[in-house]
Amino acid sequence: RRVAASLCAAFLPALLAAVLACGGEETTAVLGAGVTPLHLEDHVAAARVTAEVAASARRPLRWSFAEPDPGWFLVGGPEGQSSRMSWEGSALVLSVDRRPPRAEGYRGSVGVALPDLEHAEWGEIVIRARSRGVDWLNPAFNLGERYVEEWDETTPVRYIGEGTAIVGDGREHVYRLQADAILPAFPAWEEGESWRELVLAAWARSPGRLEILSVEVVPRLAGFAEAAAGVRAERRKSATRRTLYSHVPGEVAYRVEVPPAARLDVGLAVLQRTKPVTFRVVAEEAGGEAVLFSEAIDATGWQQRSVDLSPLAGRTVTLTLAADGDPGAIAFWAAPTLSGSSSAEQRRAHPNVVFYVIDGAGADLMSLYGYNRRTTPNLERIAAEGVVFERAHSNAAWTKPSTASFMTSLHQSVLGGFQSLQEAIPPGVTTMAEHFHRAGYQTAVLTTNPWAGSMSGLERGVDWFRDHEEGGEHSTSSVRLHREFWDWREQYPGRPFWVHFQTTDVHEPHRPTAPFAGLFVSPERRRWFDETWEKLTEGEGGNGLGDRSKDPRNSLADLYRERLASLGVDARQFFDTQRGLYDETMAHQDHQLGRLVERLKASGEWQHTLLVVASDHGHPAGSFSRFGRELFEPVPASDEGALLDSYRTRVPLVVVWPGRLPAGRRVAAAVSMIDTLPTLLELAGLPPPEVLQGRSLVPLLRGDPGWEPQPLILEQLQPLPDHGTFVGHIEMIDGRWGASLEIWPEGLDPAVVRPIGNQRAARPHRPGMPRLYLYDLWEDPFARRRVNDEHPELVERYTRLLVKQWKAHQALAKRFEPGAEVELTPEQIESLRALGYI
Fold first, then answer.
1. Residue 838 to residue 250: CA distance in whole angstroms
2. Which residues, in sequence order, are bridge partners of residue 91?
């Protein structure tokens, strides 16, 4: 390939000059890369498409269980059946309540006979189900001899597919499983063997039940039936890419003006494993053409390629992306991006943007903000080159609503409230990634928390995307995410770029690594903590706390205290150790952030990069113990507290743009993470969203004396669609005063409220308690003691203001469509489980 590239470099200019000198016809409107990269996949409507939609030989197979389906049966082996199958309501119910001999846990399977199918023609198995205690589900194929002794006797099958963890919250979820992914311990499909049976094999740690509402087996070509060429997100291994797809054989031709030092960067893949596709890039003008690139690809993983277009600089040509091969295949062109050189002035006007979110990073536990342990020395050095906001708050206390809010500048309830783990940002709302992508930026999202990604709809407008953990430990996620960032930049070096990091280094459970492990916690104490944590998290129901954790009347703090007491554990020692482990992971994260900035400087990007370092919430997400509050003397009462607690939502916010923003400035004004979107858009010279609830912080960044402070709004709510209402809290930070108003319709039975994903409200719902809690934040920034009795007039005032605010949010929400449902992939669920959310 290197020889071919050298020959191409030597002879391409002369060849192109000869070929492109003749007359010819134009195709469509001329596209230009200009000062920002040209995303070819975004301009399919302006392209000439020459391809035909390949008709699928198969229609989807669907089973819905409104009525019992006699085709489904209980699968049993020689050791006898380990489960029971029944029909209840509109569900096939698999009761997994018997432990088979020699098997770990409880297992059971159901299956259905299929007409003899060609296995390679099918892509996905989509399952709608509710789980009550079932933890895992695998697809299996064809009854018969077992190839692997480790698989229990209750499922005598020839092939076991790659499975998924199941969300056991009793709510309906959708799971997508690959129909062609076989566990490594099993051999591949035997040649000529048809697909005769589909089996769903469930596993549970303790007795449980799986309520299957529907099953669908989807042909490979089903997602490509609407157009000969189009745009969709495609995932291969850890990376999801925004792709241009085309049916084979096919061509997508663009009329483009080629900029100086031009190059085309693209990832290539095919849908069919068995049929190679030849990808070609052809330049055409004046009746002649030159093949700039040609290669046969038979891999389904991304094959990254770069095509040199510099000999065409200044010319207007027809650039054709062609895919040749047998009909029925699909060719993927991942983020086909045409870029060229830009001047220093252009780079200053359109800065790179690095939006770096440290998931779960509390400002109160950073030395940058006065913490007594040196947890963030690198961030202190970075911040000295820019502006530090002393009092920034997230808008919620856990990832999904908080990240969705600062990515759209709209509050959670305006976005629809998120009725389940799966609900995404409404399609009528423009995300930060979409704003920058539409402006020509190359875009990437790199996170190990799916709620900061596709489970919230935040993959939209993203060229290069990953949102799950794939091997390794999430406490060192920054190492892998930084490595992937530099891989992306090497493969797509055009400027400007926008990247959103959301690392999970400091997120529970904390597992610091060398050389930071041992900074604040001895090895002996860490072993003791790990053993205690394992005991604490054993059992069902949210961190081992039992079904009581689902009741909103119960305090999570009380449940942790009770569980620790039942284990005979000193609670103060436990929480103090937990804080030390958190601090060690913070030191690791800080070190990696320092290395990232040093490399940006070494690469020459730093002077043209706008960096924002922030967080989505403070140290305790809504389902975790709050070690900060538990170390106060005395420990705050369990019925005290609010989202505005400094530990819970006070977050770092650092903005650096070398030479363009003041260095060493610290801003005392209270600001909100919901302000980051309009701020970044203004700094990048882009228009603000049509509808937004935040405001640009640019005047504060530049020291404008005319800044008028405004109250901050926080909210964390749970929709109850069956009751047409919400429950939760909406809050206000107004200078000295913090007010927290509970949203709880009178007469609503707490039994109908089960926290989403174990996420807790600001405080437990207790009948008879005040509707609004008032806190003096000058004296009590951690919301430990309400001052309602001392200031009844303020209680009345803030109740009135927050009721008005809540009505305004409900009215604004009508502007947007309901959030879309997203299907859960195995990788997403495993990442959420690793982070302790489910």
1. 44
2. 88
**Can you read off the two tokens belonging to residue 304?**
């990254």
CA distances from 670 to 294, 391, 621 (A): 57, 5, 22
HEC-encoded secondary structure of 235-281: EECCEEEEEEEEECCEEEEEEEECCCCCEEEEEEEECCCCCCEEEEE
Higher pLDDT, 428 or 669: 669
371: tokens are 């913490």
User: For residue 192, what are its two tokens?
Assistant: 């000529």
Is the CA virtual torsion 551, 555, 559, 562 positive or negative?
negative
| pLDDT at site 818 | 63
Query: Residue 527: its pLDDT value, please?
Result: 96
Is the pTM value of this prediction over 0.85? yes
User: Which residue type occupies 91?
Assistant: A
Name the DSSP letter for residue 423.
Answer: B
| Residues ≥6 apart with Cβ < 8 Å to 7 | none
Largest CA distance in the chain: 88
What dihedral angle (degrees, nearest 10) is formed by the CA atoms of 486, 487, 491, 495? -20
Which residues, at least 6 apart from 51, have a Cβ–Cβ distance to it below 8 Å?
228, 229, 246, 247, 248, 249, 250, 251, 252
Angle at 750 between CA 791 and CA 399, to 5 degrees: 75
Q: What is the DSSP string of 552-580?
A: TTS-HHHHHHHHHHHTT--HHHHHHHHHH
Taking CA atoms, 443 is separated from 169, 244, 462, 742, 748, in Å, by 35, 16, 5, 39, 45
Q: Cα-flanking dihedrals φ and ψ of residue 145, to 5°?
A: -60, 135
Kindly report, residue by residue over 733-777, the tens digit of the pLDDT. 999 999 999 999 888 888 778 766 556 778 888 888 899 999 999
- Residue 22: predicted pLDDT: 37
Neighbouring C-beta atoms of residue 71, cutoff 10 Å: 10
DSSP H helical ranges for 506-570: 523-536, 556-566
Q: How big is the chain, counted in residues?
A: 838
Which token pair is 621?
């997400």
| DSSP β-bridge partners for residue 124 | 178, 218
Q: Which pair of tokens denotes residue 581?
A: 């482990």
Check residue 26 and give its pLDDT. 43
Q: Which residues pair with 231 in a beta bridge?
A: 244
Residues in CB range of 396: below 8 A, 6 or more apart: 402, 405, 412, 617, 643, 649, 714, 715, 716
